[in-house]
Amino acid sequence: LTKAIFEAVSAHLEDKGALLRGGTIMDATLIAASPSTKNKDRKRDPEMSQSKKGNPWTFGMKAHIGLDARSGLVHAAGVTTGKVHDAKVMDNLIREDDRVVFADKGYVNEKPKAGRRLSSSQLKRNRRHGAIRAKVEHVFRALKCQFGYRKVHYRGIDKNGAQVFALLALANLFLARRQLRCG
What we know:
Elements: H1 2-15, E1 23-32, E2 49-52, E3 57-68, E4 74-81, H2 90-93, E5 100-102, H3 120-133, H4 135-146, H5 157-175, H6 177-182
Parallel strand pairs: 1-5
Antiparallel strand pairs: 1-3, 2-3, 3-4
């Protein structure tokens, strides 16, 4: 039901001209789950898993989103266990008519080889792509800071996925509030 609500909100935003076509920005965020074994089975949630971002390891799930490159609104989403690599869900986040796709820095930014520096043109390209990709962080800020969804509340991917879809629909409405008010 919440996925249908998310799709209905996306369709409404597209009708209002807030959700455009032409490009997608993809990214994922880790949502922590309780690593506690203090339950009747004395086990962690079997549908969650460990994932490393930077140095710390996080036990939980990933929320993957496809964002409209112009408007900064979410048009596609999915949830997986924490250990699933972003490239595995990439096809579900890209629209058929997208002419350009921006992925996170692991895919897009050029990295220097050992003992070398990036050229000035490579640095400019990374900055240009970084400025475009920054829009994805607005959605994650709304999800984690505005709505306080930093940790899963239920056991299992399905229940938590339903909550993610509902929160992403609300995040789209929150981020498009000025356009909807004026339009």
